[in-house]
Amino acid sequence: MAAMHSRTSRLTSTSDTFLQLLSSTRRGARLARLLAVEQLRTWQVPPSLTERVEHVVAELAANAVLHGRVAGRDFRLGLRLTPATRAVRIEVTDANGSRLPAPAFVPGPDGAPDAEAGRGLLLVSALADRWGTQPFPPSGKTVWAECAPKPR
């Protein structure tokens, strides 16, 4: 997990992969969204897919900052484009593997979700084709989501 300790952000970008360490702050989460949009533009991802990915990145980065933050540790944003399908895989890695995300659905009096937390993951579930988590040893986790262009 040495990379998560780094104070110096390292940008890694190849033709189909983007990785960036960001501070575990609101500013870092906002920057994750902005960098993702710029990278998707560079890859010439269609606007409709870019918009979906932007919302997913915003939610996963906010969760990393709010729920996965460990003092002195950064979070990592990863994007991977599959050239053949133009699908985008989003990965947000934080240092707190003990708190796994789960969408909350607590119905209110009108049947609408009434939970204080977890609503953002309902949005991720709606926008992404699939999402999940995986451990990031020794103590972190990666929350990933995949979004593919919708057929016309």
Written description of the protein model:
The chain is α+β, with helices and mostly antiparallel strands. The protein has one domain: Heat Shock Protein 90 (2-Layer Sandwich). It has four helices and six strands; from the N terminus they run αββααββαββ. It has a six-stranded antiparallel β-sheet with strand order 1-2-3-4-6-5, with helices on one face. α2 (26-42) packs antiparallel against α3 (47-67) and α3 packs antiparallel against α4 (119-127). The termini are far apart. The model is unreliable at 1-8 (pLDDT under 50).
Summarize the SSE layout with pairings.
Blueprint: H1 2-5, E1 11-13, E2 17-22, H2 26-42, H3 47-67, E3 75-82, E4 87-94, H4 119-127, E5 130-136, E6 140-147
Antiparallel strand pairs: 1-2, 2-3, 3-4, 4-6, 5-6
Helix pairs in contact: 2-3, 3-4
Amount of beta strand: 25-35%
The whole-angstrom Rg is 15 Å
Q: State the end-to-end CA separation.
A: 42 Å
Uncertain ranges: 1-8
Quick overview of this protein structure:
The protein contains four helices and six strands; from the N terminus they run αββααββαββ.
Q: Which terms summarize this structure?
A:
single chain; 152 residues; alpha+beta; Heat Shock Protein 90; 6-stranded antiparallel β-sheet; 4 helices; 6 strands; globular
